[in-house]
Design goal:
The chain is about 80% helix and about 0% strand. The protein is built from seven helices and two strands. Strand 1 and strand 2 form a beta hairpin. Helix 1 runs antiparallel to helix 5, helix 1 crosses helix 7 and helix 6 packs antiparallel against helix 7.
């Protein structure tokens, strides 16, 4: 494999993947940082301005899932949805700050990968490859769980979800293999 995506040299393709990861991390910071700094909605805070809509949709989904059970022996607590929503609201800040921290770490790792490719230092690429493989495994396993859940509710949505998960898994593995090939090229020293 000397080309990435059939036409780009493998070193350029892996560098481009690193730059895409850096840009996506920066775009995520554009959304999360205003929320964490409590910037006014009128200035720019898209996460805060849409948070109530997210809570409403989540509550509607919880109510529909809890009320659609066909088990007559099940005695749901009528306040179960309220308790879940209270917990969701309580952990929103923690979730967003955790995501911002993970994004920061991924940004640094992606930057290290780009520097490793450009400076012929294979060791700088290894953290990216390890973290990306963990993301692939978690993504595929959670995608399988979501697909099974969609099959439970609607077979068409399950089929679409399975197709999307297969395509995304293929692309994520292909891009990981491209970075791994660059690592191998740098190890052998014929870049």
């Amino acid at each position: 494999m000397r080309k990435c995506c059939c036409c780009i040299p493998i070193l350029g393709g892996a560098t481009f993947l690193g730059f895409i990861a850096i840009i996506l991390c920066a775009l995520e910071f554009v959304v999360t940082i205003p929320y964490l700094l409590k910037i006014d909605i009128d200035v720019f805070n898209p996460l805060q301005s849409n948070l109530e809509y997210l809570y409403d949709q989540l509550e509607y989904g919880l109510k529909s899932v809890i009320n659609e059970t066909d088990d007559p022996e099940r005695t749901d607590d009528p306040h179960l949805t309220e308790e879940i929503m209270r917990e969701v609201r309580a952990y929103t800040w923690t979730t967003i700050i955790s995501e911002a921290c993970c994004t920061g770490v991924y940004l640094i790792i992606s930057l290290m990968m780009v520097c490793g490719i450009q400076c012929d230092m294979r060791g700088l690429m290894l953290p990216y490859m390890i973290v990306q493989m963990l993301y692939i495994l978690v993504g595929i396993l959670s995608g399988i769980g979501i697909t099974v859940l969609f099959f439970y509710f609607n077979i068409i949505m399950g089929i679409v979800s399975a197709a999307v998960i297969l395509i995304l898994a293929f692309l994520m593995i292909y891009f990981w293999v491209a970075v791994q090939k660059v690592s191998k090229i740098l190890q052998l020293g014929y870049a």
